[in-house]
Design a protein that fits this description.
Elements (H helix, E strand, L loop, with lengths): L4 H12 L13 H14 L7 E2 L2 E2 L3 H10 L14 H11 L13 H9 L1 H4 L3 H20 L20 H11 L2 H6 L6 H18 L21 H10 L16 H13 L10 H7 L3 H15 L9 E6 L4 E6 L2 E11 L8 E10 L3 E2 L2 H14 L3 H4 L2 E5 L6 E3 L17 E4 L10 E4 L8 E2 L13 E3 L3 E3 L2 H8 L8 H9 L4 E14 L3 E3 L5 E3 L7 H9 L11
Parallel strand pairs: 3-15, 5-13, 12-14
Antiparallel strand pairs: 1-2, 3-4, 4-5, 5-14, 6-11, 6-15, 7-10, 8-9, 8-10, 11-12, 16-17
Helix pairs in contact: 1-4, 2-7, 3-8, 4-7, 5-7, 10-14, 14-19
């Protein structure tokens, strides 16, 4: 562990032992200490650059509110001795690494140095401010994340949790439950704590040397004998894909090893064929330290989620190309999905599904009409008619229909495409037979698709940003549960009519479009996915920089 229990016990000993020694009466007056705190808060020429020692205090607004509400009385000392709460806070900060956060970001070294100066610590206004700032900053990071995702990715809109941290700090001090109060700010979902456990596991692996790389060479298949096989066995034992009790050290790629490779491939979103090809070899050779960092960035993403995901909710993990319907914590339906290409990425946000359109028309977005469909029409003038597109201009009573075959499409300007394209309901419609709506600023939704063959691909980044669902009928049945008019036979009859129909859901269902490249299933299996949108690197860099000021919503 980077922060040993021994150091924590030493600090507790200092605070509860040496720190109990009282000084002179005039120097121990809490009113004098309160004045020092007030003066310190008011003395900064730049209110955004208040410092204690050589370190900036980062929660300026929250600090000012907290101390003003308590008449500037010290929170961690009575002027004679430091409180036990100070020791509890310092030990809690030492454990920040359990959340993938760095204890050093919360003044722990400076606090520990000042605490060790027993005489000074009793009347140290800056120490009191440091302790409060550490609580507020750490609390804000547990509550809503260390990084604002929108500052590093314009396609990420998080419904981050908020809370009144000055009130939470005051309550923690009044109730003598500093550690519990901070623990309560972390995401409450079991998926978060399972990922914390995975972080500990992979840190232990990394600390013990990680794993050796498997050399390149020809594909390894069942029955082959190869000098790399023993190294492959040891590699798979390190992560538990091959039972540690396996005693075979031969160079034969036997069936037990094949099963272990398949297990590894499934955990990493690879073709589960039991063959060591280039993609599997690359995944095997990702260093343990990088897997640790991958888990850390996904813990941060958990902290960007709402407090409650919903009793019934839908999760789409864009990086895993899967959708899950969840009821009271149990996954009741899973479907493969297709998400946006790298240059038309599916955004990340939370919303609520509100209605379904059966047998929808597709009003083609202008950029898709100009960039995707126009080149096809130029090559094949009959494309629009064959695929059921209407060529239009205007809306409502001003709408005009054009004969697509009479238009010289080679002369049409791609940059100012002058027409609207609308594809009517039917088997060729790009949206399939239904679309699932949660109106949002990104104009993203779930929908069916006639291109069923694409669901057989391992990585499914083929859409223009919306999400294609492999099991739309099953999803519709689940969303409409409780509406007897739209059970499976009712929905099928509606689809067979080929008439467009909008059906409101009996109740809105939260939907969360996420981007998790690492997560842990209820059975404890740790999964990793390739970072198809290259989002992990930017977030990892941001987390290693100086901790940001707590957001206003958390003050």
């Amino acid at each position: 562990m980077p922060w040993s229990l021994g150091r924590g016990l030493l600090v507790i000993a200092i605070l509860s032992g040496l720190g109990l020694v009282a000084g002179g009466a005039s120097g121990n007056d809490p009113d004098i200490l309160a004045e020092r705190i007030r003066s310190r808060l008011e003395s900064a020429l730049d209110p955004d650059a208040l410092a204690a020692g050589d370190e900036r205090l980062l929660c300026i607004d929250a600090l000012a509110t907290f101390y003003e509400n308590r008449g500037y009385r010290p929170a961690w000392s009575d002027g004679k001795r430091l409180s036990k709460a100070a020791a509890e806070l310092l030990k809690t900060l030492d454990d920040a690494w359990l959340h993938g956060l760095q204890p050093a970001d919360y003044h722990v070294d400076l606090i520990r140095d000042r605490v060790s100066n027993v005489k000074r610590s009793r009347n140290d206004a800056e120490l009191d401010l440091l302790l409060s700032d550490a609580f507020l900053l750490y609390g804000s990071h547990l509550l809503s994340g260390q990084v604002n995702p929108e500052t590093i990715d314009s396609e990420w809109f998080a419904n981050r949790r908020g809370g009144n941290l000055p009130e939470i700090l005051q309550s923690a001090i009044d109730s003598a439950r500093v550690r519990a109060a901070l623990s309560d700010l972390a995401p409450p979902q079991r998926g978060y704590s399972r990922l914390q456990e995975a972080l500990e596991k992979y840190r232990r692996i990394d600390a013990s040397g990680g794993w050796a790389s498997i050399p390149e060479g020809e594909k390894l298949k069942a029955g082959m004998e190869d000098p790399r096989v023993p190294a492959l066995r040891e590699r798979l034992k390190r992560t538990g894909d091959l039972p540690s009790g396996s005693a075979d050290t031969s160079g034969v790629f036997d069936e037990v090893l094949v099963a272990a490779v398949v297990r590894f491939q499934r955990r990493h979103g690879l073709d589960a064929d039991g063959v060591i090809g280039s993609a599997t070899l690359d995944a095997l050779n990702v260093p343990a330290a990088r897997r640790v960092q991958q888990i850390i960035v996904n813990l941060e993403r958990w902290r960007w989620l709402p407090q409650e995901l919903g009793e019934r909710h839908v999760i789409v993990n864009v990086a895993d190309f899967h959708l899950d319907c969840v009821h009271e914590g149990d996954t009741v339906l899973t479907s493969r999905v297709i998400v946006g290409r790298d240059y038309r990425r599916t955004p990340v946000f939370s919303d609520e599904l509100s209605y379904i359109v059966f047998n929808p028309s597709w009003e083609v977005p202008d950029f898709i009409a100009a960039e995707d469909i126009l080149p096809l029409v130029r090559k094949d003038p009959a494309y629009l008619e064959r695929m059921g597109f209407d060529v239009l201009r205007g809306w409502g009573p001003d709408e005009k229909r054009f004969d697509g075959s009479s238009i010289d499409w080679k002369a049409v300007n791609k940059r100012s495409f002058p027409y609207r394209l609308r594809q009517g309901p039917g088997p060729l419609n790009a949206l399939g037979r239904m679309k699932f709506m949660f109106p949002n600023r990104f104009s993203v939704y779930l929908h069916d698709t006639p291109a069923r063959e694409l669901f057989g691909k391992t990585e499914r980044t083929f859409s223009s940003g919306c999400i294609r669902v492999e099991k739309p009928l099953e999803l519709a049945i689940w969303l409409l549960a409780g509406d007897t008019a739209y059970d499976k036979p009712g929905i099928q009859a509606l689809l067979d009519s080929n008439e467009s129909r909008t059906v409101k859901l009996p109740r809105r269902v939260p939907i969360h479009l996420l981007y998790w490249t690492s997560w842990v299933s209820p059975d404890g299996t740790v999964y990793f996915r390739r970072d198809v949108y290259n989002r992990d690197g930017a977030l990892g860099t941001a987390l290693r920089q100086e901790p940001p000021v707590a957001s206003d919503s958390s003050n």
